[in-house]
TrEMBL record:
Gene3D superfamilies in the cross-refs: Tetracycline Repressor, domain 2
Region described as Disordered: 197-236
Keyword Transcription: yes
Annotated organism of origin: Nocardioides kribbensis
DNA-binding segment(s): 33-52
Alphabetic keyword roster: DNA-binding, Transcription, Transcription regulation
Domain of life per record: Bacteria
Stretches with biased composition (Low complexity): 197-227
Protein name: Helix-turn-helix domain-containing protein
Domain HTH tetR-type: 11-70
Length: 236
């Protein structure tokens, strides 16, 4: 006989059962039983039905909990902004990848093709995605000036590669590590010696390269070229 449950408010008991059900769904899928849920929660099976009307109601609540983004924002906020850009992005991708892999595993276990439509295709879901993008962009910070694209675009590509590199089927079983994902986005896959370089740092598009078209006499009276923004230099 299970031990007597500690007194809880109805909301506390509901939250406990949802958490337990979510954990068991990841292991057993929809085949999980109310007996298993009760044993894991340390309560009598009948207690469940004083909180919810059916197992399906509990499963639905657990799926809603699984797709809640609340915790991910807290984890992103914990990343130290004093770290260099690569280290910040590696930590960000680690957080995103853990969530993706947990979500993919749950979806597969419960026999779903994707997140429930009402949780993914809604104004509320759009707002959450926009908030997540802002949080990621803010993490780029002042290093945005060193990118060849806008930080929002860099974050978009980073998330796309993280999604694909974290999915067993999409990645053909060859998952990418956070370091591999970040290095692909920030530095690409060309070896350093093979990367294109600018012949003239002052003008990446200058076809003359290192040839000086201005003679010594003219150089003293020729206005210097205006400095280019860092973002243009980074794109050479």
């Amino acid at each position: 006989m299970p031990p007597r449950a500690a007194p809880m408010t109805p909301q506390e008991r509901h939250d406990q059962l949802v958490d337990v059900t979510l954990r068991l769904l990841r292991e057993h899928g929809r085949a999980v039983t109310t007996k298993q849920i009760a044993e894991a929660a340390g309560i009598a099976e009948g207690t469940i039905f004083r909180v919810v009307a059916s197992k399906d109601e509990l499963v639905d609540a657990a799926l809603v909990r699984a797709f809640d983004h609340g915790a991910i924002f807290d984890r992103i906020a914990e990343i130290d902004p004093a770290l260099d850009l690569r280290d910040r992005m590696v930590r960000l991708v680690s957080i995103l990848q853990q969530r993706f892999r947990a979500t993919f595993g749950l979806i597969r276990k419960v026999g779903m093709l994707g997140p429930p439509a009402h949780l993914h295709d809604s104004a509320e879901a759009d707002a959450v995605r926009a908030r997540l993008e802002r949080a990621c962009v803010e993490l780029v910070g002042a290093d945005a000036e060193h990118l060849s694209v806008e930080p929002g675009e860099m974050v978009h590509r980073l998330r796309l590669l993280t999604f694909a590199g974290s999915h067993e089927q999409v990645a053909d079983g060859r998952l990418l590590s956070p370091e591999e994902i970040v290095d692909t986005v920030l530095t690409g896959l060309l070896a350093p010696a093979a990367r294109p370089t600018c012949a003239d740092p002052a003008d990446p598009a200058d076809p003359v390269g290192s040839v000086d078209p201005v003679g010594p006499a003219e150089r003293a009276t020729t206005p210097a070229r205006p400095a280019r923004p860092v973002r243009e230099e980074a794109s050479c």
